[in-house]
Amino acid sequence: MKRADTIPKCKLIILCFLLAISANAQEITRHHVDSLLSQKSIPGSAADRIHVALQLAEFFTHLRHPSTAQLDSASHFINQAEQLNYRSPQAETSFRIALIRSAFYKSKGQSKNGRALLERTIQEIKQAHNWVLLGKAYFELSEYYSQDFLQQSMVSRIDYLNQAIGAFERTNHMVELARCYRLLADLHQMMNDYTLAFAETKKALAYYDQAHYTETQGLYALLGRLYYTQGDYKTAISYELRALKIATTSHADNVRLICQINNNLGYNFVKLGDNQKAINYFSRALEIAKSEKDNATIYLLAGNIVDVYLRMHKPQKAQAFLTQVTRKFIQPSGELYEGGDEVSQTYLKVYLALKQYDTAKLYCDKLIQQTNNPNLNLYARTSYYELIIKFYTATSRFAEALKYLKMNQDLLRKIGNNNDLGTNETLWFGLDTSRRQYQSAIHHLISANTIKDSIFNTTKSKQIEQLQIEYETRQKEAQITLLNQKSKLEQANLQQANLVKNLTIGAIFLLLVIAALLFRQNVHKQKSNEVITSKNVLLEDLLLQKEWLLKEVHHRVKNNLQIVMSILNTQSAYLQNDIALEAIRGSQHRVNAIALLHQKLYSSTTTALVSMPAYIGELIDYLSDSFDTGYRQIKINQVLNPLNLDPALAVPIGLILNEAITNAIKYAFDHKGGEIKVSLSTSDDENAILKVSDSGRGLPPDFDFSEANSLGMEMMKALGKQLKGKFVIENGHGVTLTITFPIEQNREEAFVEKDYL
User: Fold this and answer.
1) Rounded (10°) angle between helices 46-61 and 68-87
2) Which residue windows are coiled coil (predicted)?
């Protein structure tokens, strides 16, 4: 069984760290710094010179990887500010100097000294009741945990950020409040608390709006990541594109953020199955990393591109691309906590796909050695274990694979990563199948599906909770709007009454009668509108629930079909009769054709229609892998016009294709191979044409399709009748099977059948 299409948690965490911009807002740009440094002296009063010196010191201190020369510059400006302040001491200036010096110690690797200074300064600031600097001090204290993603470390960082919020809430510093909430949301997203993360992003956005702050690209990029984790990839893409637009038009230094946004977009298009767009966005991010000369990020992004090529079953292209990168850029070295050995991981994936196990062993051994690195992030360690397990299983070293499966299971339970626990169970299923322990294999397969179902249900519950909150918010807004309308109406009546007072008694009486009638009619109309609105909302909610239930049904049907396939696979291991074994395998292919359809239905945004090019493409990929057409030298070409059909039509088409392509692969060619062409087109708005042709040896001269009574032929005849289609088989320079079937008539009958059911 193949692993589900998920991006490991460690990839998201490591990438966010590698591409992170300093959390502290820089009040001075690189251009401004160069301008100030070019001046021999800074004009202005002592207070002005202190302010500029601290700005310069803060700029160099908060660079991501400051050089020795840049740290020396920071130290020079801190000392300069201290000397100027010594002449006329100001408590607030002393506090600012202490905060920047603490950050300087941290950047220099002297975290113990920096933290001790910061904690002393916090106590002094508390006594001075300076809430702005207290908020900044707690914020700076939280940054001491910014390179550590262990659970307790993130909890501590959250605690300090909440204390910073408590201080900033006593001030009018809305931008600082928004920044704190944005980082809180990022941390809760890493801890899988998505409900809290969504609430915190909305608070951050509200504070940015109050401050009229337009540099919101980081927040929208975070919203995109949050919707990505919820599986709402289209919404995620809309937020990422919004962030990209703001970042590219801003005057701020957004180079690294733009790199991160392009990478996030690549992940989303991977999920949507648009591999080419994914490669385009990953490549844009890679070009930025190259311009920044950031080799760690270069290799991480190159790994993403390699992963896409492997998904596209192009291991040779993946190998060539990775070799090109390694020739141009030095591989990152040292025991970086956040990075791990991305190069060895990527090469191991490539050589496993190429089945070059001797070369793959070199990189597997490197990963095994790296697992002993005490600085290695726990999420990165699990990704190492997964690749090591795959290598040992592929090379039949089952004892070693079992050892790392148990180690990975213990580690995943420790960090609470349920998604990868399901993946570990899938790997265990593969190991047990390879060593023919089928009862244990079925147990692990069921465990994997149970975990995946649990994650799916949890995600849907959170989405329902989020929708419920949004629904209640809309209801409250509607009530407020209604009250405002009533208030305006009452004010209008008052103005009208004042005007009526100046008229005669007869006119007053008449106007009062008219006003009363109008008011009654208006109230009646408003009540009618309220009833209609509430019913519309209820109908929308019921429709949404029906859509979820349909997707859940398709999801469970797909899982059950996969279990059926696994049971058939297990049964085949006990069969010695080639005919029975061939029948079991044929049944597996037919079941998979139906399972693919249900997978398409529950993973798509609509359950009404199926995209036939995507469905047929995946079916052909599956058959190519199953029969190893590359080894047989058989090439399958596809010419598929865009066409969306009802599932009732897609199932017989998939089964017909399964039989036709399977027969062509098995019987049409000799050892030299050949070509199979599959095409789907529409002759007009009412009919579609499905054609499967091969360049093989053809059928015997005396073959009669109407008299053929094999299981495959009988199935195709029955399915053709179900489609109300016309079968034509041509025998010359190979076999060409053509079926022409009506679209609209079948659609109408499918709809009638659904309504009846």
Assistant:
1) 160
2) none
